[in-house]
From TrEMBL:
The keyword tRNA-binding does not apply. Keywords: Leucine-rich repeat, Nucleus, Repeat. This is GH10410. Signal peptide: none annotated. Transmembrane segments: none annotated. It comes from the Eukaryota.
Amino acid sequence: MKILCEVQVVNRITQANRTPRPVKSTLAIGYKQSARDSNGNATNKKELEMVLFTPQVKSGTRYKVRENIHCVHTKFVLDGKVTIGFKQPAENLLIKCDPIQLKGFLQTMKLGMEGKDAINLRLNISAATAIAQKAQPQQRMSINKRSEYPIKGFPRTLKSLSINNIQLMKLSFEICTLRNLTTLDVSGNKLTKIPKELGRLPLTTLRLSGNSLGELNDWCWLRGSKLSKSLCELDLSANGLSHFPKPLVRFERLVTLNLNHNRLQYLPFGIRRLQKLRALHVSSNKLESLPAAIEDLHIDLLDVWGNCFKGFNVEVAQTQVRRPAAPNNAPTPLWLQAARVVANQKLPYTASTLPAILIELISEAPKCHCGKLCFALNSGDVLKRVTQPMFTNIKNLTYSREHQIYLDVIICGADCCVFQQMKLLSNIMFP
Ligand SMILES: [Zn+2]
């Protein structure tokens, strides 16, 4: 009989462990047919032997069993733990195994010690070998040639999958069903669209660099509930993006966002929702300004190298604060007042206590320096673009020194104290 178990060998005299930890082992028991006894006389006596196969001793360590047992501790056999001690050598085997198998093994040992013949003992112990350990389920796969793409499908156990530079046009639905997947890298292909089912996977890392997702600008997959709550790292660099994908501001776990080498002209004010963001790469885009909301984040690395920061552009400015228009001089709508109260008083709220539109407003609408939420430019809010902003929350900033960085600031009204102060400061560029 053979069992697969974990064994630690302890020498009782030296108290030395042959292995510091229990190691995966095979324990075998059976009769050894010895043609001659110790006196050299021919005999049919069967010698009971136990063999311990470990990765260190592949040929096995042999222990005589009959009249050689020092102790057997079975108190924790139901927990799958047993100690068998031998007299020669003075070693204890601390065995951990499936409890049912372990009980079977002890019963077999007992039968053997009584000299009985049992099916479980009909093992040629001299020729016994370790149980072949099951190959580890495949967790990683990397495909760099079209010929490597699996025809019979992907192993369901995959945790990490990369498919790079093979001109892939479409991400197969099957990939979206790999429930164990946490890292997906499909950089350097020809994807124009991601299936919306991908949003159901709890990925932590997603690399889509060097595709053509800006072509269709289809971001349905970013609305998937699981992905938006799990994703920590997203690479959308070199995808020809002309707009920041709007649903991305709800990826509140995002730590690293790479948007290098696109054609972005602005980042949304709602980016302040990404409170876990630590690295934001937007080099080599067409950014004319950054939203002041970037100062509300706790960014360790901001890379804005190679953009075209410049003065005010009213058209772009209007699209940044694109909210339902309110008539001039209209009273502040009740729901905006409600959102402002919740935000100002820092009242706790959840999706079940507050309508989604208010949550969106509180976490994504531009915020005036005075702390008030702004809503629409034509309801009295003022947009200013300032240069040389002081980034107090950004640890490392990479930018082209020939360009000044411009920051768009929204002020809640001409009578706000912030606006009055700004008028006094000389570094403000008025339109
Ligand atoms: Zn204000």
